[in-house]
């Protein structure tokens, strides 16, 4: 078990600045988004006990005095079954190619982790260093916890010491260079992106087992300087018969979805938000190249080759 590399001693204690990009990658549901939020200290990425909540990469920044960590929470590396999943995996793979370090997350109760190149279906293993990180450390017994932390890295999202230990292990892999982003920034994506994400998070927690996967959202109007901030959003489902479930009796389900998303947005922006929600049916959007492009999914490898 190697110790974290130390910066050159004797330079009056001032460490050279480092800054770089780190991917949080792994199978669906291993705790990537939860870890991103713990690393950044804000609920930026959506989290769900249901798999595949994350559809597009989410970037979160953590700036310390001498280090800027730019984390990329990726969609789960799965074997794609239809076009949306192909695009999700493509987006994940693309991001894997542009980072300085890959963290391969795997739940501690399911240790050992599989081979990363096989999981990512990359015929040529990435040249980028890959560190295996066992997540959900709180779910295994102390003996297993001890063993896994000796073999590699073990974290629990709620355990600050494990997060600090992880950051220490990441730092030496980041290039020595100036910060890329303002140290006050916690993300790079526009607020519109998070409007959609938080609505989807609510859909995952309130809409049963199937419907969240057929759910999408699109911001139609955004009046950022108004107070409350006015945001009009269309919520999409795939079939007419799903409308009733989304809206709920007396509108209570859609109201709860809006209220969850509004809470998260107000926390993120520190300003009151008004969400004006509309519902539309968009048949088979998850298999439609046009709809997927409109919702921000980059073209899949198969579509561009
Ligand atoms: N007990 C425990 N549960 C966790 C931990 N990290 C994530 N989870 C849970 O695992 C599930 C999947 O988490 P999520 O971050 O959405 O996984 P992702 O699909 O890899 O992004 C959620 O129910 C989380 O609450 C952890 O450290 N401990
Ligand atoms: Mg996720």
3D architecture notes:
The chain is an alpha/beta fold and 305 residues long. The protein folds into 2 domains: 18-173, 3-Layer(aba) Sandwich (Rossmann fold), CATH 3.40.50.300; 191-304, K homology (KH) domain (GMP Synthetase, Chain A, domain 3). It is 33% helix and 21% strand. It has 11 helices and 9 strands. It has helices at 32-40, 83-96, 116-119, 142-151, 160-170, 191-206, 211-214, 243-247, 252-269, 289-294, 301-304; strands at residues 18-26, 58-63, 67-73, 101-107, 130-135, 153-154, 216-223, 229-237, 273-281. The strands form 2 sheets. It has a 6-stranded mixed sheet, with helices on both faces. The chain has a 3-stranded mixed sheet with strand order 7-8-9. Helix 4 (142-151) links the parallel strand 5 (130-135) and strand 6. Helix 6 (191-206) crosses helix 9. The relative contact order is 0.14. The structure holds guanosine-5'-diphosphate and magnesium ion. The site of magnesium ion has 5 residues, from helix 1. Residues 32-33, 53-54, 73 line the site of magnesium ion.
Give the helices and strands, then pairings:
Blueprint: E1 18-26, H1 32-40, E2 58-63, E3 67-73, H2 83-96, E4 101-107, H3 116-119, E5 130-135, H4 142-151, E6 153-154, H5 160-170, H6 191-206, H7 211-214, E7 216-223, E8 229-237, H8 243-247, H9 252-269, E9 273-281, H10 289-294, H11 301-304
Parallel strand pairs: 1-3, 1-4, 4-5, 5-6, 8-9
Antiparallel strand pairs: 2-3, 7-8
Bound molecules: guanosine-5'-diphosphate (GDP) and magnesium ion.
Magnesium ion binds next to helix 1.
């Amino acid at each position: 078990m190697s110790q974290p590399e130390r910066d050159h001693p004797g330079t009056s204690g001032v460490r050279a600045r480092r800054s770089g990009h780190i991917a949080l990658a792994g199978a669906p549901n291993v705790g990537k988004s939860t870890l991103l939020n713990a690393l950044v200290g804000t609920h930026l990425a959506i989290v769900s006990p249901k798999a595949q909540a994350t559809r597009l990469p989410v970037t979160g920044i953590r700036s310390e005095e001498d280090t800027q960590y730019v984390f990329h929470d990726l969609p789960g590396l799965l074997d794609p079954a239809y076009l949306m999943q192909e695009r999700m995996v493509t987006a994940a793979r693309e991001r894997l190619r542009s980072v300085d370090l890959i963290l391969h997350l795997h739940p501690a109760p399911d240790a050992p982790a599989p081979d990363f190149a096989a999981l990512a279906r990359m015929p040529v293993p990435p040249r980028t260093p890959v560190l295996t990180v066992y997540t959900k450390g709180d779910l295994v017994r102390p003996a297993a916890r001890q063993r896994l932390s000796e073999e590699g890295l073990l974290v629990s999202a709620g355990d600050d010491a494990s997060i600090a230990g992880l950051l220490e292990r990441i730092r030496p892999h980041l290039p020595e260079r100036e910060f890329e982003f303002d140290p006050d920034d916690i993300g790079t994506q526009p607020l519109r992106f998070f409007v959609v994400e938080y609505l989807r998070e609510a859909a995952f927690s309130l809409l049963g087992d199937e419907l969240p996967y057929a759910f999408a959202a699109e911001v139609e109007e955004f009046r950022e300087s108004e107070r409350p901030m006015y945001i009009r959003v269309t919520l999409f489902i795939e079939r007419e018969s799903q409308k009733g479930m989304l809206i709920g009796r007396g509108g209570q389900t859609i109201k709860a979805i809006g209220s969850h998303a509004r809470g998260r947005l107000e926390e993120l922006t520190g300003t009151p938000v008004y969400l004006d929600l509309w519902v539309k049916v968009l048949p088979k959007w998850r298999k439609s190249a046009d709809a997927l492009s409109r919702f921000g999914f980059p073209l899949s490898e198969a579509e561009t080759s």
